[in-house]
């Protein structure tokens, strides 16, 4: 097909000219101009969409918040907030239900089916969430520990193989390992084992399962979703690849708990099956991004790395002593490292949009952007400094708004997998640090600078040198 650049230019110019009255209206006559914000974003929806397609909107919005304050108009009908007090107003409960409805343009019918908790309306989501809660209860999570540890051991074994030419004689092959890749493998294995009682074999085979690759790319596709009519609904794909439901395992996995409660809630089989997609989609990539971020921040701060090494290696005399109960409770410094990672590197940095309807019926889209909120100078002292101490009552950070960090959201539509994600992160970090001395490859300098976001951070390769611990 041949293009005609002159015709394209003419069409662009004509449509821009035709829209000038609308741009003027948006800037000066619209009901929202009382909210501050850059005119270059407020005149049309196009600039924000462009930045989102480019994966860089978080940086532009942060600059706008630093200049204009805690509420910024970022498109004609769109406001961004960063005050900690607004979390509850936007996402919390009101009269036992979600305070505000989800924005159907983001939660559209190409993203996920409306029988997933993410897209179900507030009333329909209640029984699904109730059925999920029993699967995510602290008791059933503790029941998953041996499964998680089994996967961690498999991962450690593969990392040793990658690191050592001859493991018994400790002959290293002096090759850095792409850590991010292995963490993704492990998180997809753990989440699918948790969800369906069967892992995907990513760590064992050292490669992405085909549909896992698809799920990772779905995060990018979600940004382009309006143009993505070619995508088959994800849950149908998943049920094609995972012959689940009837499979029986001795260990009560998520589906075991979920199906038992779902029956009591009167949920239909299609609703039960649809949870397959959301569980893998929501849990694997997010936790992998957070874990990779945590390893990066720890290794790039030698004092933090040393303190964590000391805490973990002194607390657990043998690797078998590492247990969820102890890893979660006895290691406050590890806890602070994880919190600080979720502040500086929240896996889903851009906000989740909700709608406010005014008396005339006009809708405004509002959200809190995690990246802007967590790196705002109005919320944190030295917001770009990775400082676990800020979670320990260090005087320097006394004025920090620590409750501004809400990577799992708040309220009735928050993340039900929060405890599962935190447990995985802490267990894996503890095992890694107990077992290995680690060092960043030089190429990782400024590894996170300019990272793009398509729903989640697009992290570059992450080469790390490993060796069996010396002390
Ligand atoms: C660090 C890791 C994680 C982060 C930061 C995170 C964050 C979030 C956030 C912000 C939401 C709300 C999204 C929205 O409103 O559209 C969400 C929803 C959800 N998450 Fe997580 N998540 C993580 C890990 C997990 C894990 C491990 C699981 C399950 C094993 C999980 C299961 C879910 C489910 C099922 C939903 C949908 C809930 C609903 O819409 O009602 N998440 N997550």
From TrEMBL:
Belongs to the cytochrome P450 family. The lineage of its organism: Eukaryota, Fungi, Dikarya, Ascomycota, Pezizomycotina. It comes from the Eukaryota. InterPro entries: Cyt_P450, Cyt_P450_E_grp-I, Cyt_P450_sf, Cytochrome_P450_monoxygenase. One of its GO terms (molecular function) is heme binding. It comes from Bimuria novae-zelandiae CBS 107.79. Transmembrane segments: none annotated. Keywords: Heme, Iron, Metal-binding. Heme binds at residue 415. This is Cytochrome P450. Pfam families: p450. Its cofactor is heme.
